[in-house]
User: Which sequence fits this backbone?
């Protein structure tokens, strides 16, 4: 009788290991030997190409001193960075050398449905030994990424960056151009992770409230207030410490495939502009990125140029991309510090003038706690932009129970009574930390959107779930229980999302832009993935201009896999 | 800041500097109005006039056909787990006994087959309190499932079959709760079980637990009395070295009441028993 698997046991001892790493000060005691070294991985290829040959295969890796098999491409995890040019037609031959079906989805790329790479919707997948050739015209530019849409291969390493040059040639806005692929690595079996969460939803949360934190809070806030607070959460069977379903207890956070102890290094000469194309390829982790001492200019979101926003820090959810430009005047070294939202670990990189110069690693920020606002109980917006609201009927950002017929039940743990706009808030754990943090309200496209039609109708979807049972879905239904969302070809619709759950959900609509109504009018940002905060209501516009079956889902991998997914049919 | 701004302007290229000002307030509603000339690098269909699109989706006559019948996500999987809540040695002045209490289940989010089993091997080597149940568990609310099935009392005593109906789940304030009613030609019975995890730290957990048994008729051969018959309760301190593997130590108390106490006395067996307990909580 096996009580627990070996990898499981190792995984749960990871915390001690991480402590050890912290103590060693990132001295680089353990060297990752991904076949492709860090420099190759981060580099954007010299020039764009139109023909690619990719071999999906198992790749041996050593991460955090442990050997494991990752899923990679051409011997590399993360997969190689692809550089394309707008206006070209690319041809990508993908050969499957795994012993299970695979697929590659070009995330954020506008293409014909049959090239989108989702088994069941776009094609039948790529069977072991088979080669599938993707061929499509590239009609956009910017930073994107690609990843498997089969099973749990995304968790085991099947992701890589895409850089697309504008048709008129590379922008030339920076002397250095690096890709930062952020991810969450574990040697635990992904199927086992889901199974564990189905049994015990707080399996990976070792930061729960205890008798100790009760005593501390009682000292700070008084015994009565602390008891009332505990009772309030207890009466909902929810925990304010519930930030991430899977944590640093089993995850090692990677930057370009490098664990924090080795880290990734990007070289520069003082005075140069360094463009960092940040891609969150993690399965379950929202990251907060900063470079202490340097101001980052956010110049693109999800591949689309935005008016530069100077920030000290920004949050990036799975599947989002941000391009930032920094201009270090001195020698540095500067640390690229990327904490997980729940503060159980970080990925680390260094901007330096020569290799082997690790920068100082700052302490982790305090971990966030969920609030009653996250529970959809309204409350005063913390960001100070109380009037910020979706460009929709001039509503003041608050709506009494948009829940309609939605009721609590097996698949609905809670219904937000007063969801509101939270676009001007940077997110849990980033409020009032003294840094300039990016918010969705800051994003302003450099060009006006070209589609001026008003939407013909609104589609309201609730993001729902039951953390205790680890069931996630839309409108209280899992994928398998729900009808597809139908759109007419050419139709322009407004999607309204209301997050009834206590977690962020990065919602990704394949095939189309999601034009976020963030108060920037015609200059609304075009995104492919929109993070909806707990208790938030947001809206965006979509022009359904390409026929076919498209995926629409939460980009937290395990939320998607257990049902937070819809098929969108455009016909 | 000057440096940052320079970078920004350099980047913005042809965009007027005024574009850097982020006027958020007064732009709302522009979506509907001013049809800007399309200059975007974003390739979408040419913009139409600034009016609502008249198109509506067609009504689908047949269900969506997935390519090669592949479901894009598998959200209807079967999961199985087994939890050995008590697996312990109990010691009092007169010697030791062994007790176990566990359950396993297999199924989907809504429908599960659940098996429960508990029993005690006493000082004298007799297997007592042997209670084994097979139940169908249907999720009915956020935290609870309804269970129906059979219970078999199988141990060193005479075997008794029961029909079972109950609920199991997480009561508010995180109380684990099981309440089951049993029926047979001998009458009815009831069992209430509850436990609560007090986190001293995230791995050191104190768990008060209790199981109460009620019977409508006495069954002397099985040491049960009419009414509130017996209680088995404990306070266990476990250390979750791994989530699935937690050694514990504790104090347990078993007691018989009313008619059951009388039966116990007449047999010269213990009516109230306090024991020191060492064990293992495991699940897989």
Assistant:
């Amino acid at each position: 009788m096996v009580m627990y698997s070996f990898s499981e046991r190792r995984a749960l001892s990871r915390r001690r290991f991480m402590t050890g790493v912290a103590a060693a000060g990132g001295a680089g005691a353990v060297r990752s030997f991904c076949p492709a070294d860090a420099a190759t991985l981060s580099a954007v290829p010299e020039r764009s190409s139109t023909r690619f040959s990719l071999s999906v295969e198992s790749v041996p890796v050593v991460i955090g001193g442990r050997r494991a098999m990752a899923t990679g491409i051409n011997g590399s995890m993360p997969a190689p960075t692809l550089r394309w040019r707008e206006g070209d037609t690319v041809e990508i031959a993908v050969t499957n050398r795994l012993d299970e079906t695979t697929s590659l989805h070009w995330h954020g790329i506008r293409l014909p449905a049959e090239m989108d790479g989702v088994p069941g919707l776009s094609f039948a997948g790529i069977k072991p030994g088979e080669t599938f050739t993707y061929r499509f015209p590239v009609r956009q530019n910017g930073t994107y990424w690609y990843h498997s849409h089969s099973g749990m291969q995304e968790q085991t390493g099947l992701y890589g960056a895409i850089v697309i040059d504008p048709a008129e040639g590379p922008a030339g806005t920076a002397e250095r151009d690096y890709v930062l692929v952020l991810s969450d690595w574990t040697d635990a079996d992904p199927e086992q992770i889901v199974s564990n969460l189905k049994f015990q939803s707080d399996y990976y949360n070792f930061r729960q409230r205890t008798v100790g934190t009760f005593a501390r809070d009682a000292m700070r806030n008084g015994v009565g207030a602390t008891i009332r607070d505990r009772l309030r959460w207890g009466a909902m069977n929810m925990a304010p410490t519930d930030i991430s379903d899977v944590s640093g207890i089993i995850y090692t956070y990677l930057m370009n495939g490098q664990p924090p102890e080795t880290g990734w290094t990007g070289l520069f000469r003082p005075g140069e502009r360094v463009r960092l194309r940040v891609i969150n390829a993690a399965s379950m982790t929202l990251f907060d990125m900063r470079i202490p001492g340097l101001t980052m200019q956010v110049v693109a979101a999800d591949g689309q140029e935005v008016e530069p926003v100077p920030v000290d820090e920004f949050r990036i959810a799975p599947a989002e991309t941000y391009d930032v430009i920094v201009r270090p005047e001195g020698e540095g070294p500067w640390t690229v510090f990327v904490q997980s939202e729940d503060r159980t670990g970080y990925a680390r990189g260094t901007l330096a003038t020569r290799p082997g110069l690790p920068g100082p690693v700052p302490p982790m920020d305090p971990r966030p706690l969920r609030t009653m606002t996250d529970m959809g109980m309204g409350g005063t917006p913390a960001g100070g932009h109380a009037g910020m609201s979706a460009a929709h009927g001039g509503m003041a950002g608050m709506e009494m129970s948009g829940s309609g017929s939605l009721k609590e039940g097996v698949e609905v743990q809670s219904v937000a009574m007063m969801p509101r706009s939270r676009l001007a808030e940077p997110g849990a754990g980033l409020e009032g930390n003294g840094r300039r943090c990016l918010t969705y309200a800051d994003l302003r496209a450099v060009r006006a959107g070209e589609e001026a039609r008003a939407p013909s109708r609104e589609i309201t979807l609730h993001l729902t779930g039951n953390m205790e049972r680890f069931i996630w879905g839309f409108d209280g239904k899992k994928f398998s229980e729900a009808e597809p969302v139908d759109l007419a070809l050419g139709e322009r619709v407004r999607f309204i999302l209301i997050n009834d759950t206590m977690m962020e959900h990065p919602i990704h609509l394949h095939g189309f832009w999601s034009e976020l109504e963030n108060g920037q009018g015609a200059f609304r940002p075009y995104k492919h993935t929109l993070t909806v905060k707990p208790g938030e209501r947001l809206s965006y516009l979509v022009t359904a201009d390409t026929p076919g079956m498209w995926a629409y889902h939460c980009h937290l991998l395990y939320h998607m896999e257990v049902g937070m997914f819809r098929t969108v049919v455009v016909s | 800041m000057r440096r940052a701004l320079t970078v920004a302007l350099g980047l913005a290229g042809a965009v007027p500097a005024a574009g850097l000002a982020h006027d958020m307030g007064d732009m709302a509603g522009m979506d509907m109005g001013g049809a800007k000339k399309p200059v975007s690098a974003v390739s979408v269909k040419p913009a139409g006039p600034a009016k609502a699109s008249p198109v509506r989706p067609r009504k689908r006559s047949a269900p969506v056909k997935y390519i090669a019948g592949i479901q894009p996500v598998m959200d209807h999987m079967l999961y199985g787990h087994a939890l050995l809540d008590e697996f312990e040695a109990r010691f009092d002045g007169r010697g030791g006994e062994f007790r176990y209490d566990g359950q396993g289940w297999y199924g989907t989010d809504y429908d599960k087959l659940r098996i429960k089993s508990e029993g005690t091997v006493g000082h004298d080597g007799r297997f007592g309190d042997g209670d084994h149940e097979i139940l169908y568990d249907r999720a009915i609310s956020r935290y609870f499932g309804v269970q129906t099935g059979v219970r078999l009392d199988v141990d060193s005593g005479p075997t008794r079959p029961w029909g079972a109906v109950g609920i199991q789940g997480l009561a508010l304030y995180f109380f684990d709760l099981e309440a089951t009613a049993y029926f047979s030609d001998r009458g009815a019975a009831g069992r209430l079980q509850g436990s609560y995890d007090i986190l001293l730290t995230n791995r050191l957990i104190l768990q008060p637990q209790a199981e109460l048994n009620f019977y409508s008729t006495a069954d002397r051969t099985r040491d049960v009395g009419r009414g509130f018959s017996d209680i088995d309760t404990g306070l266990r301190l476990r250390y979750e070295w791994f989530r699935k593997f937690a050694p514990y130590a504790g104090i347990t108390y078993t007691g018989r009441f009313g008619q059951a106490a009388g039966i116990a006395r007449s047999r010269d067996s213990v009516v109230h028993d306090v024991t020191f307990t060492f064990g293992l909580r495991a699940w897989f």
